[in-house]
Amino acid sequence: MGAGKSEIGLRLAKSLGAGFVDLDAAIVQRCGLPIAELFAQRGEAVFRRFEVETLMQTGKDTVIALGGGAFAEEPVRKWLHRHAISIFLDWPFELLYQRIQGDSSRPLAQAWRLRLLYRKRRVLYAVSDFVLPLHDDRPEAVVQLITSCFRDPTKNEFC
User: Fold this and answer.
1) pLDDT tens, 133-148?
2) I want to staple 141 with a disulfide (CB 3.0 to 4.6 A). Which of 78, 101, 136, 147 is the partner?
3) Interatomic CA distance for residues 51 and 10, integer angstroms
4) Cβ(84)–Cβ(21) below 8 Å
């Protein structure tokens, strides 16, 4: 949550000449409900099922911005491993917390759960194809780092 996946994903897609899908936005469009309402009305398990189904309908040559918990789901990781390249935007917890605190549209962002979620998910995200420890908060710098990983991952210490 708060990693900038949507903004960075859209910029990356443009730089690569690829399509772009924000998975949360696609779920909202499919269900007709904001994520927080979907969680409240139908529960997290239903949301996660929609997440997997929506992901599997994504076309080739597409940059996909996953929701904050998507990669924590085993079916998502398996699908990505077979069909995509995964990138973990590894920001410090404090920066992520500053970005999302008080955002009522994030159903799992209650203050008491955030650090626990961060620790739990970070371990899972570490199996991504690319793990990028980040500190430069400029989206264009992150996109540049990602594209440099694609060009030659052996020459970039962060890939």
Assistant:
1) 998 889 999 999 999 8
2) 136
3) 19
4) no
DSSP sequence for 67-109: -TTGGGSHHHHHHHHHH---EEEE--HHHHHHHHTT-TT-TT-
Low-confidence stretches of the chain (pLDDT < 50) are none
**Domain residue spans of the chain:** 5-155
Q: Are 112 and 69 in contact (CB under 8 A)?
A: no
Report the C-alpha gap between 17 and 84 in whole angstroms. 16
Say which CATH topology domain 5-155 has.
Rossmann fold (3.40.50)
Please state, in angstroms and rounded to a whole number, the distance separating the CA atoms of residues 61 and 109.
Answer: 31
The pair phi, psi for residue 87, each rounded to 5°, is -130, 125
Six-digit token pair at 139? Answer: 């989206």
The amino acid at residue 18 is: A
